[in-house]
């Protein structure tokens, strides 16, 4: 079959992936999985105020795999019983993974947990003594927690019916957590932080958008059936490839893309994603843009668009050019505008003999700021500036207008 997204998530639905009937495991255990579902899993899911579902309870004439796919799509949370590592269950987990479903694993042997599933929450239990009672309580608690966790589901997979509509729009209102847009077809909509970028989380929309700003995006229908405006609807998410190519404890060599004194070093990983080596893990020597390092992936948080790294060693460092000695705080220049970025509030200014400095909107004079925001200044224009800070190690010059 062709797996198309044709069902939306239903709040409160808990779909269970598990073997059926009575099975004998490789270690000799004989388990009646139907009784396990009825006596343990079903009551625990109901106690968590969710509706338990299993594919054999989705009635219809369609094949079992079609009913499984429907159940996966409609689930708010999926519980997968992986004891015995049933091939069918593992395949179904893969389907759930593709659309980023919240997934809770159950197993009697944590040591048998496949490496690819290590990032998911797993509940280990015993079938002896009070082990099943404890499983019931643990399952209920973890289901309640899973429902409050940040949503990681792939919301921008188009549903059948052409529900992605590309259309330009203009920003009409900006708040911290959302932007209101007015589209060219006279349609209104909301742009939320999750639909701005695949590679970073936008904490404050006011820092990235302004009234009257033109946007090129699309209206989409998310998994809850709500219409949203998105800037990434037609972009491929890098996270499935990152998760596949760089599982935890993967060591790689990357380039330092940026270094922030109080945060750490951002190192290029792949597919446009950078990982962070925290400042507390860095050596006394400062890293700078262009340095080459060896690092290990410690944790990937797709919901927060974050990759945590551990520095293994510095492979090489770029040399600091001698002309940096000319650039000192307080020195004034007549520079040339090389780039204007109104929507992010900055301009790049080329200083003689050749270095480029950053002029942020909050360091512009009132007169220049008005010209900047209204589009009266152009690339190639001259501007008088003063160096606020020059950091050779970080390759950064901060300017203000004079």
Write up this protein.
The chain has helices spanning 33-47, 64-74, 87-98, 131-148, 239-245, 366-374, and strands spanning 13-17, 22-24, 30-32, 51-54, 77-81, 102-107, 121-124, 165-174, 179-183, 188-191, 214-221, 227-230, 251-260, 264-270, 273-278, 292-301, 306-316, 332-341, 346-350, 356-360, 382-391, 396-401. By secondary structure, it is of the alpha+beta class. Strands 4-1-5-6-7 form a five-stranded parallel beta sheet, with helices on both faces. Strands 10-9-8-11-12 form a five-stranded antiparallel beta sheet, with no helix packed on it. The longest helix is centred in the middle third of the chain and has 18 residues, at 131-148. Mean pLDDT is 84; it is low at 155-162.
Fraction of residues in β-strands: 35-45%
The CATH architecture of the largest domain would be 3-Layer(aba) Sandwich
Fraction in helix: 10-25%
Q: Indicate the low-confidence ranges by residue numbers.
A: 155-162
Shape: elongated
Q: Could you tell me the mean pLDDT?
A: 84
If helices are DSSP runs of H or I spanning 4 or more residues, what is the number of helices?
Answer: 6
The CATH topology of the largest domain is given as Rossmann fold
* The CATH C-level class name of the largest domain: Alpha Beta
Order of secondary-structure elements: EEEHEHEHEEHEEEEEHEEEEEEEEHEE
Largest sheet: 5 strands, parallel
| Strand elements, count | 22
């Amino acid at each position: 079959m062709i797996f198309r997204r044709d069902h939306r998530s239903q709040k409160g639905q808990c779909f269970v992936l598990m073997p059926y009937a009575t099975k004998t495991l490789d270690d000799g255990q004989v388990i009646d999985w139907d009784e396990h579902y009825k006596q343990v899993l079903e009551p625990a899911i109901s106690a968590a105020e969710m509706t338990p579902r299993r594919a054999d309870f989705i009635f219809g004439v369609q094949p079992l795999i079609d009913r499984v796919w429907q159940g996966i799509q409609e689930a708010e949370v999926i519980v997968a019983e992986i004891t015995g590592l049933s091939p069918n269950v593992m395949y179904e987990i893969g389907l759930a993974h593709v659309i980023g479903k919240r997934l809770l694993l159950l197993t009697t042997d944590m040591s048998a947990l496949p490496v690819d599933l290590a990032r998911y929450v797993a509940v280990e239990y015993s079938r002896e003594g009070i082990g099943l009672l404890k499983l019931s309580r643990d399952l209920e608690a973890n289901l309640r927690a899973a429902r409050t966790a940040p949503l990681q589901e792939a919301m921008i997979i188009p549903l059948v019916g052409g529900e992605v509509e590309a259309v330009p729009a203009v920003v009409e209102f900006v708040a911290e957590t959302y932007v209101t847009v007015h589209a060219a077809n006279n349609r209104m909509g909301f742009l939320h932080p999750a639909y701005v970028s695949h590679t970073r989380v936008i904490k404050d929309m006011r820092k990235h958008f302004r009234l009257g700003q033109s946007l090129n995006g699309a209206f989409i229908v998310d998994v809850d059936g709500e219409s949203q405006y998105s800037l990434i609807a037609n972009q491929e998410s890098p996270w499935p490839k990152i998760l596949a190519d760089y599982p935890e404890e993967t060591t790689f060599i990357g380039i330092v893309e940026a270094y922030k004194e109080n945060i750490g070093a951002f190192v290029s990983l792949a597919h446009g994603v950078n990982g962070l080596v925290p400042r507390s893990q860095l050596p006394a020597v400062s890293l700078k843009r262009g340095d080459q390092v060896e690092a290990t992936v410690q944790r990937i948080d797709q919901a927060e668009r974050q990759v945590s790294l551990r520095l293994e060693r510095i492979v090489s460092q770029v040399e600091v050019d001698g002309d940096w000695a000319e650039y000192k705080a307080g020195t004034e220049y007549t520079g040339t505008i090389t780039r204007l970025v109104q929507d992010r509030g900055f301009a790049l200014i080329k200083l003689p003999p050749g270095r480029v400095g950053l002029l942020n909107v909050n360091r512009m004079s009132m007169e220049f700021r008005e010209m900047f925001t209204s589009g009266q200044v152009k690339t190639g224009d001259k501007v008088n500036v003063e160096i606020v800070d020059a950091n050779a190690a970080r390759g950064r010059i901060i300017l203000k207008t004079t």
